[in-house]
User: Which sequence fits this backbone?
């Protein structure tokens, strides 16, 4: 069994490390890399989509980044306790027609003792933006 430090229970410093690691992984836009942070049977809610397990997570992320082009994300620690972390985030992307979007949301994370994420619940809203209003750039 592989562990994914830092491990719960989290301190403010280790919660911030988890949030930064997640931001870095998601900005890689590598579905396989991102999926390795989750337990084999991880449960997700992403907007109105419910997923279970790494295979479903990987497929979901692959489709996401085929549709959400030039994706760039920022996460911010909101709160933490024991084996749970809450974050707020925003990301920007454009669709195939070139229209830019900023997506805002909150995530609730629950971790297994080995530091892998067992549950991720995300609520997300999208806002159309002009290209000149972008804030997140590579």
Assistant:
């Amino acid at each position: 069994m592989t562990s994914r430090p830092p491990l719960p229970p989290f301190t403010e410093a280790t919660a911030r490390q988890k949030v930064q690691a997640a931001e870095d992984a998601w900005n890689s836009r590598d579905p396989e890399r991102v999926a390795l942070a989750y337990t084999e049977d991880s449960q997700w809610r992403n907007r109105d989509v419910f997923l279970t397990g790494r295979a479903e997570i990987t497929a979901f992320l692959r489709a996401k980044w085929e549709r959400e082009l030039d994706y760039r994300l920022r996460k911010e620690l909101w709160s933490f306790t024991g084996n749970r972390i809450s974050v707020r985030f925003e990301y920007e992307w454009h669709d195939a027609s070139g229209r830019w979007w900023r997506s805002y949301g909150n995530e609730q994370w629950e971790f297994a003792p080995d530091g892998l994420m067992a549950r991720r619940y995300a609520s997300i809203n999208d806002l159309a933006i002009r290209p000149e209003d972008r804030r997140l750039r590579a």
About this structure: DSSP finds three helices and six strands in the chain.
